[in-house]
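Researcher: Next entry in the queue.
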Amino acid sequence: MILQEIILYALAGTCTGSVLLMIAHKNLMYAALGLMGCLISLAGIFALLHAEFLAATQLLIYAGGVLVLIIFGIMLTNRIAGKPLLTAATHWFFGIALTVGVASVLIISYHETQFESRIASQISMNSQAIGIELMSTYVAPFEVSGVLLLVCLVGAAFTASWFKKHPHE
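Model: Structure for this entry, 169 residues:
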């Protein structure tokens, strides 16, 4: 039990550090790498909590798919413009106020919620049930989401090629 808590706190610290890197760094490439660290550590937290389906989804879709598209977009935009993409942090007061507000709502909700403990085997059987339902009952929405992601990928490639032909527009 102690080892799991140590791993949980290490993953939470990695996630927090990655988010701070993502927020504080001005170079978008390093911010995207910070986002990758955050997503991978969240997948580790999901795996530690016996939510294997969420961990696999986090790794495959977000860290493996969406973030790779973001990084390629940054790299292509960087090559077209010829100068590094930098960001500047503005509106610190509103950002901090919003962060404190959301954190207080989450902390109050956490303290007022009654959690019931579940056995890990019941939770892992849930992953199998989700997979069976996804490939039988909900196969049409699953395929439609795959087509939608393909359309987004083709649109991103088209947009990148258009910006390459028209760099000053």
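Model: The two ends are 58 Å apart (CA to CA).
Researcher: Noted, moving on.
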